[in-house]
Amino acid sequence: MLTIDRATYDAIVAHAKRDHPDEACGIVAGPEGSDRPERLVEMVNAAGSPTFYEFDSTELLELYKEMWDRDEEPVVVYHSHTATEAYPSRTDIGLASEPGAHYVLVSTREHGNNEGPVEFRSYRIIDGEVTEEEVAVVPALHLS
Amino acid sequence: MAIEVRIPTILRTYTGGAKAVNGDGASLSALIDDLEANHPGIKERLIEGDDLRRFVNVYINDEDVRFIGGLEAELSDGDQVVVLPAVAGGAG
To answer: Buried b / exposed e across B20-38, counting CB within 10 Å, b at 16+?
Structure first.
């Protein structure tokens, strides 16, 4: 199960809506081994595409170095699908490289940049196998 | 000659869980062969055909090797190498 606080959840949704029709992407870092998504980092989609996302390689290195300095790891890796459901594509599965992370998919296909609900789903992707998991949105992580 | 190589989580199965290992080599290509000798199987995860895999990033002293010669990029004692899988995907 992914447990995430309301503010971080809302920020991921807002990022996805803002970048629609391109895919939005980012991570939520947390202390190593904690499984607590605490620090949202919005990333630029270097592909700038409605059907693909990729972190810029230089920004990727900066991000990881920062996490190593803080003893963090990517607890959540998120991106949006803008015309399809919030389910990992074959590309997503083939490229998933953080076996410890929750892969969050947001779909903006229904309301695009506008107000309205989005699909927000979370998965484990390990060795090509996808397992959907429950998402618990809590007021704040320290209360959970 | 010692070059520290930072190993991403997904490749630590090849390094017995180690986050970083030491290697040798005057070029990235030679370093990867040296890693393969000590951690069999890792090369195939880094290289496809004659080149680095498209979705594997390798940095030497913070420079993406794609900008400094790819597999032919030169290495010296004390250099730091980081391997990071791309974070990428999409609806395709």
So the answer is: ebebbbeebbbbbebbbee
Cα–Cα distance list, A92 to A1, A51, A104 (Å): 20, 11, 11
What percent of chain B lies above the pLDDT cut of 70?
Answer: 99
- Residue B76's nearest CA partner among B56, B61, B58 is B61
B88 contact residues in A (CB cutoff 8 A): 47, 52-55, 91, 95
Low-confidence stretches of chain A (pLDDT beneath 70): 143-144
Q: What is the ipTM of this complex?
A: 0.93
CA distances from B21 to A123, A144, B14, B15 (A): 31, 38, 11, 8
CB contact under 8 A, A57 and B82: no
Q: Residue B65 pLDDT > 70, yes or no?
A: yes
Specify the CATH architecture of the domain B3-85. Answer: Roll (3.10)
- pTM of whole model > 0.80? yes
